[in-house]
């Protein structure tokens, strides 16, 4: 379970995150929905331990990220907006490299083969990453997030810049991953969050505007849509 309490992140006087409190239960598939600059990435970066908060706490299964960051990081796999892919490596070499730096306990060959099958990149495992399409690269990004065998997967705008076929593929991969993991996905596209997530957290100007299931939020979602959230 992820618990965020009174979280703030200030850049100068700018409140990128402005007093957000929320709880995400184990197994939830949750969407952070909000327009550009809403504070989604900043919140995700704090949960994953990439950056620290100005004020407030984030705990994962009761462990405070600011006190025991390594313990929390082991539980989380992260696909940042721009995943750090090594373009001159093959897919398999890259995942092997990530495996080695993460000191994973599962047997390497089987574990990586399972991940590649899960995200549907086994057919390109011997190709250089630089020669892959955007959709495949994004799935390699998701694969690297899975190497540490995380209980929680955080995906920042996983389908941005992809064509409809690639989007469909990524969504089906996320649906599979959400069956036995907690997943948080961010997007500024309402239809995207509706397609992937059971629960929605609407963020705007650093503030949590609403949270609940899609059904509970149907009115607010259409309001958000007319306000600033593109579909
Ligand atoms: P996007 O969809 O564009 O990624 P977002 O919802 O993820 O948007 P954030 O990237 O979290 O939003 O940004 C929230 C606000 O904080 C924005 O106004 C942004 O300009 C500001 N911000 C983010 N990172 C920094 C930084 N390192 N320094 C200064 N301001 C920042």
From TrEMBL:
Annotated keywords: ATP-binding, Nucleotide-binding, Transport
Q: Which domain of life is it from?
A: Bacteria
Give the Gene Ontology MF terms in alphabetical order: ATP binding; ATP hydrolysis activity
Asked whether the UniProt record includes Cytoplasm among its keywords, one would answer: no
The record places domain ABC transporter at 2-230
Q: Does the keyword Ligase apply?
A: no
Q: Which family does it belong to?
A: Belongs to the ABC transporter superfamily.
What is the protein name stated in its UniProt record?
ATP-binding cassette domain-containing protein
Biological source species: Qingrenia yutianensis
Source lineage? Bacteria, Bacillati, Bacillota, Clostridia, Eubacteriales
From the entire protein, which fragment is shown? 1 to 231 of 363
